[in-house]
Amino acid sequence: MADALDDLDRNILALLQEDATLALDEIARRVGASKTPVWNRIRKMRASGLIKSEVALLDPDKLGLESCFFVLIRTSQHDAGWLERFLQAVRSRPEVLEAHRLAGDIDYILKVRVPNARAYDTFYRALIKEVSIYNVTSSLSMEEIKNTTALPLAVPAN
Fold first, then answer.
1. Rounded mean pLDDT of 146-154?
2. What is the pLDDT of residues 6-44, one digit of tens each?
3. Among 97, 100, 106, which residue's Cα sits nearest to residue 133?
4. Ranges for the HTH asnC-type domain (predicted)?
5. Please, where are the H alpha helices in 51-156?
6. What are phi and psi of 45, to 5 degrees?
């Protein structure tokens, strides 16, 4: 799909990534096209799954979720049963904003948002109660330098 995107598509997507509440008239005006072709392109991108969803982004600090921990996990178990329990535990916890399986020395990394260190400890204890983990290293983010949900929309290099 990325190869099929033209400049107009990329401009529409850039605007939607910035503010998905923009009126169709405003999007069309900003990209220099009429409403019907812009609407058709947006519909097509939604139908294809390129536009996955439109959400409200909330301020974690204003919700009292002031602590962001990055949790590095190493496991000594790689069987299907362990993996299923781990995935279920991670997916069921609202504190986990992101979870990635990694190549290299660390098996998984989690991004966890909680009010404070005590809440993180509660999360940690619940996680290790559900799944056996060989090694966990947690790092508290002291300052968020960049946080964006906008994907780069540059034309891919050939």
1. 93
2. 999 999 999 999 999 999 999 999 999 999 999 999 999
3. 106
4. 5-66
5. 80-92, 117-130
6. -70, -35
Contact 73, 135 (CB under 8 A): yes
Contact call for residues 38 and 12 (beta carbons, < 8 A)? yes
Tokens for 67?
Answer: 């602590």
DSSP 38-76: HHHHHHHHHHHTSS----PPP-TGGGT--EEEEEEEE-S
pTM score, whole prediction: 0.88
Structural domains in the chain plus CATH codes:
2-48 (1.10.10.10), 61-140 (3.30.70.920)
The DSSP 8-state label assigned to residue 93 in this structure reads -
Distance, CA of 25 to CA of 41 (rounded, Å): 14
Burial class, 133, CB count within 10 angstroms (exposed 0-12 / middle 13-18 / buried 19+) = buried
